């Protein structure tokens, strides 16, 4: 029986295989792109961070995954790069020179840029998290974090952006209507202005009408956060929604199920 020797080593973005012991003792070397071997989907990332050690960690780890990373070390430069170039995802520190990350996030959204933004920060109080989502960040990762966790979150957003799912574009419940294309909401014909985070929360509730959603369900789907039972971010945003969706109407649609979670349904 012929014996084969497989030599695997990384050469830029390729893996080389050497096969020995073939007829006539020939040696064949062929190359397989890493993205075919490991099915890695490359992502164009913008990292806005001023700490060299954090930059080095993220840059080294994500380049090994085949991702492309651009770096800005202050808020103004990051905002400019976000406006001039296309990125699949932005990693954004909060404590930045020039312009802080919260203001960078707000200005990116004001330019109608819907690129996913993950906040990276040592700030972990509820008010800090709420402020980040008020600025329409998509996710929030507290420092110090494990690189594997960051990779998992990046992959999560990448899958969401790559997979095309045919779904109804207009969701309706009672007199409440949500248009997923125009990102608009109205109730009884009255337009309701929502932030991006409020919109995602309402969309999730409407997609699961009459089903009680736990706070953990909502955290994972709307924010993509690891479960932190001490945070009340979900309660804060449900309260925001109630003020806009239910307050001026006699019929209430958003309900609390004590000890369980929240649901959109008709009153019992």
From TrEMBL:
Superkingdom in the source lineage: Bacteria
Membrane-crossing segments per the record? 12-34
The reply on keyword Signal is no
Q: Which GO terms describe its cellular component?
A: cytosol; protein-DNA complex
Annotated GO biological processes are:
regulation of DNA-templated transcription
Alphabetical list of InterPro entries matching this protein: CheY-like_superfamily, OmpR/PhoB-type_DNA-bd, Sig_transdc_resp-reg_receiver, WalR-like, WH-like_DNA-bd_sf
- What's in the keyword line of the UniProt record? DNA-binding, Membrane, Phosphoprotein, Transcription, Transcription regulation, Transmembrane, Transmembrane helix, Two-component regulatory system
Q: Which residues carry this modification: 4-aspartylphosphate?
A: 93
Q: Which parts of this chain does the entry mark as a DNA-binding region?
A: 168-266
Signal peptide positions on this chain: none
Molecular-function GO term, any one: phosphorelay response regulator activity
OmpR/PhoB-type domain residues: 168-266
Domain Response regulatory per the UniProt entry, residue ranges: 44-158
Tell me which PANTHER family the record gives.
REGULATOR OF RPOS
Q: What protein name is recorded for this chain?
A: Mycobacterial persistence regulator A
The species is Sphingobacterium thalpophilum
């Amino acid at each position: 029986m012929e014996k084969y020797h497989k030599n695997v080593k990384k050469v830029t973005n390729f893996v080389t295989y050497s096969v020995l012991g073939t007829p006539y003792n020939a040696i064949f070397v062929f190359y397989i792109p890493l993205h075919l071997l490991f099915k890695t989907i490359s992502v164009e990332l913008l990292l806005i961070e001023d700490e060299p050690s954090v930059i080095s960690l993220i840059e080294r780890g994500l380049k090994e995954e085949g991702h492309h990373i651009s770096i800005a070390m202050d808020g103004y430069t990051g905002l400019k790069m976000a406006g001039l170039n296309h990125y699949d995802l932005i990693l954004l520190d909060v404590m930045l020179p020039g312009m802080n990350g919260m203001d960078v996030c707000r200005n990116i959204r004001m330019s109608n840029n819907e690129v996913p933004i993950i906040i990276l920060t040592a700030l972990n109080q509820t008010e800090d998290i709420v402020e980040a989502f008020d600025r329409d960040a998509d996710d929030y990762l507290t420092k110090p974090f494990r690189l594997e966790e960051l990779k998992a979150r990046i992959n999560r957003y990448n899958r969401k952006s790559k997979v095309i799912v045919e779904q109804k574009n207009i969701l309706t419940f009672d007199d409440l209507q949500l248009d997923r294309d125009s990102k608009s909401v109205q109730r009884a014909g009255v337009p309701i202005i929502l932030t991006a985070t409020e919109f995602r929360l309402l969309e999730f509730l409407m997609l699961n009408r009459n089903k009680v959603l736990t706070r953990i369900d909502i955290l994972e789907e709307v924010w993509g956060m690891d479960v932190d039972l001490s945070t009340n971010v979900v309660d804060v945003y449900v309260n925001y929604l109630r003020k806009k969706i239910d307050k001026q109407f006699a019929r209430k649609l958003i309900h609390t199920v004590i000890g369980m979670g929240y649901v959109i349904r008709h009153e019992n």
